[in-house]
Design goal:
Helix content: 25-40%
Radius of gyration: 28 Å
Distance between the termini: 69 Å
Number of strands: 12
Largest sheet: 4 strands, antiparallel
Order of helices and strands: HHHHHHHHHHEEEHEEEHEHHEEEEE
Number of helices: 14
Number of domains: 2
Structural class: alpha+beta
Strand order of the largest sheet: 9-8-10-11
Shape: globular
């Protein structure tokens, strides 16, 4: 009701007497108050509709997309990848370590690896260097995988079974000389278990994700097409000493990964297993369900505030805000000093490079060859045999930018079989992904 209309009511009512005036004023107030709840409800609805800080949970489509490249891996290897993906900084460090120490004798390499303070799941992947390099190269995918496993562990394992069932129905997941595929049915629940055919080898299948699963029901979320670039067909890799850290096993019925620190004791006797049993991991006598250990997360942010609060970390958005603030001016108001090649500063050779756009996802890939900085893509791209690898650049919990040396050399990835080093030995190629694996695209 407008001011003019209220004024006219009051003037008109005055002519009719005090009683009429009071009645009409009361009616005007009632109408005004009646509109208040409506405006309050509209404001509440607008606030609820506004985007919140947290990312929504990964959908079924997103989970199938990100898990398609590894869902047909043997259970033990799959569990190690899932756990290690929650520690992307250590994955990058381990990949660099392999390149530096690949010529060490097995006995020396055993001792050197034990001295590293990485999560055991990360150490175990040293046994499969090309899988480790894949996780290091495709950091966006790796961190996305780890984020999903931390917050939706049961959904992740259920999605793996969905994809295995689809490949089985499509005739592309069968037992062969390299792998054993066992289908267990309890009531209406089907569980597909995949194991290497030989106990002394790790089978790494290679398959075209657009073929093995048959019809893909989510055109907007096509499966990621990853596979270790050194392999053209599946490879059976002789178990090396690093597999002594492979303590995880998929518990399909429990929807988690079980840990037994005393697994694979015959593979590597140089491991101080007592140290890991008493490191505060929450395991009883070295056994129990896997729990994410934030001590190995480093400076990598978490996807949502609930997870960040649980592990005393920061979210991707908080990390981005810290980076943006740090790139501007310091708290004292002094301009930020760029050391070495970086955004807006002098790059290699004294050239200036523009500031890079950063993703809300946090980690980015730094290319030291040009002194510049390139963001990792929102959707992972296929690894290239001549790709120059970059390091992981993020922020710590105090908001400072973490700068890590990314000079990892130019490792050739064009060989047709894994290198024979002290970390692993090749048993030759096999058929990738069951009968329908074959070569990737």
């Amino acid at each position: 009701m407008t001011e003019g209309r209220v004024r006219s009511l009051e003037i008109g009512s005055a002519a009719r007497g005090p009683r009429a005036a009071l009645a009409l004023v009361a009616a005007a107030l009632a109408l005004a108050l009646a509109g208040a709840p409506t405006r309050a409800q509209d404001a509440a609805a607008a606030q609820a509709a506004a985007p919140g800080e947290d990312e929504p949970a990964f959908s079924a489509e997103q989970l199938e997309q990100m898990l398609a490249p590894i869902a047909l891996y043997p259970d033990d290897l799959l569990s190690q990848i899932l756990m290690a993906s929650t520690y992307p900084l250590e994955v990058v460090q381990a990949d660099r370590w392999v390149k530096v120490h690949e010529d060490l004798a097995p006995e020396e390499a055993e001792k050197a690896l034990e001295e590293e303070d990485w999560d055991p799941s990360v150490k175990s992947l040293v046994a499969v260097p090309d899988v480790l390099a894949l996780l290091s190269d495709e950091l966006d995918w790796t961190q996305e995988l780890g984020d999903a496993f931390i917050s939706q562990q049961e959904d992740v394992l259920a999605t793996v079974q969905t994809l295995r069932g689809r490949a089985k129905e499509n005739g592309k997941l069968e037992s062969n000389d390299e792998q054993k595929v066992e289908v267990n049915v309890e009531g209406s629940t089907q569980t597909i278990v995949i194991e290497s055919a030989q106990p002394d080898v790790i089978y790494v299948p290679v398959y075209d994700t657009t073929v093995v699963y048959g019809y893909w029901p989510y055109p907007a979320y096509p499966p990621y097409p990853y596979y270790p670039p050194a392999y053209r067909v599946g490879a059976a890799i002789a178990i090396g000493f690093a597999w002594g850290y492979a303590w995880g096993h998929c518990d399909w019925h429990g929807g988690d990964v079980d840990i037994d620190i005393d697994r694979n004791t015959n593979i590597n006797r140089s491991i101080d297993r007592g140290k890991y049993k008493g490191d505060g991991s929450g395991l009883r006598d070295g056994k129990g369900a896997w729990q994410h250990d934030a001590r190995h997360r480093g400076s990598v942010p978490y996807r949502d505030s609930k997870t960040a609060k649980r592990f005393d970390g920061v979210t991707n958005k908080e990390a981005k805000a810290s980076r943006d603030s740090f790139r501007g001016r310091s708290d004292s108001g002094s301009p930020r000093v760029i050391k070495g090649g970086s955004e807006g500063g002098a790059g290699a050779g004294g050239s200036r490079t523009p500031a890079a756009k950063t993703s809300d996802r946090g980690p980015t890939i730094r290319d030291s060859s040009s002194g510049g900085r390139t963001p990792s893509s929102s959707k992972p791209s296929r690894s290239s045999s001549s790709k120059s690898r970059g390091g992981l650049d993020s922020v710590d919990r105090g908001g400072k930018q973490v700068k890590r040396d990314s000079s990892r050399g130019q490792a050739s990835r064009s060989r047709s079989a894994p290198s024979r080093s002290s970390f692993s030995g090749s048993r030759g190629g096999g058929r990738g992904g069951g009968r329908g694996g074959g070569r990737g695209r």
